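Structure ticket #2291
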Amino acid sequence: MTVDELLKRLVDIDSVSPSLVPGAAGEREIADFVASWAREAGLAVEVLEATPGRPSVIVRTTRGGPGRRLMLCGHLDTVGFGDSLTSYVDGDRLYGRGSYDMKAGLAAALIACRDANVDSLAGEVVVACVADEEYASLGVQEVLTVLSADAAIVCEPTESTVAVAHKGFVWTEIEVVGQAAHGSRPHLGVDAIMRTGPVLVALDRLNAALRGREHPHLGPGTLHASLISGGREESTVPDRCVLTIERRTLPGETVADVERDVTELLASCQASDPSLTAKSRTTMSREPFETADDSAVVSVLAEVSGAEITGVSYWADSAFISAAGIPTVLFGPAGDGAHAAVEWVSISDTIRCAATLTATALRFCR
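Resolution: structure written out below.
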């Protein structure tokens, strides 16, 4: 089976995350397919399923001798459907949910593992096909309890560049508390939505200040207001307004740094308006990731691919793998439409990606 044939088979399997879409198919069928394909290809297979219905599959080479272990990683799950589930080809583009994010990278990794499974292989190539990346990353965390490696390549889409960094994120909920009153007697109340206005202005100033520090591969950190809700009816002064913000963090920035910035911002707003009552809490966070440009796996992959070293804007499972002490890089094919209605990946780039991963594995493991 060629990489483009494998890609089409993977895309045609519904693996929408049930964490995102209640009642969705999840990873069961695609995990069974990957395990069956790998066994037929002469590879070793281990299935992990600590969370019922959310299986991950570890695929390993079975030939070769002593050497380093290279982990390739890709996720099995997707977000909800876009234009359609069934894949189709138009020129060099294969369309379908999950084609770009990231079944093309997964197909390339599996083909690379198969093609590197030769007697001359020094070491081991492992593919971690993980569940739940699109929500809580249960799969990669489970895999890391039983598997380590000398290096890892996460095959998320990077437009065939060698990505050595990505941002983290912190979600913060800010609650502004007011006092309800009848709309005809607003002087008896405290308008929580109005009091939120200066907070939003201060957040915009903080976002502008973040531009003063840039990462060489990622640019500046960012902040935006994601959600806002408040009020109960037209003729009542609102007693509550809840604002959710997302702060995208750079390597070296921590959750504590973000929490301190928000706390100081609210204190400044309250100093300007003593009637403002506000509190904040972190609801979700993920760490940023960075690997040195001169790391062994980066050097080998960059030499084999001839690609530039970059960073990517999104968060990925690479953060967990790197935090486990495994030098990690991202590399995957070009395309567009991740999480969008129309999603596609370049077939020729997916073929090149598989060949690059194979050559990198054979060179790195020796």
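Closing remark: The first strand starts at residue 44 and ends at 48.
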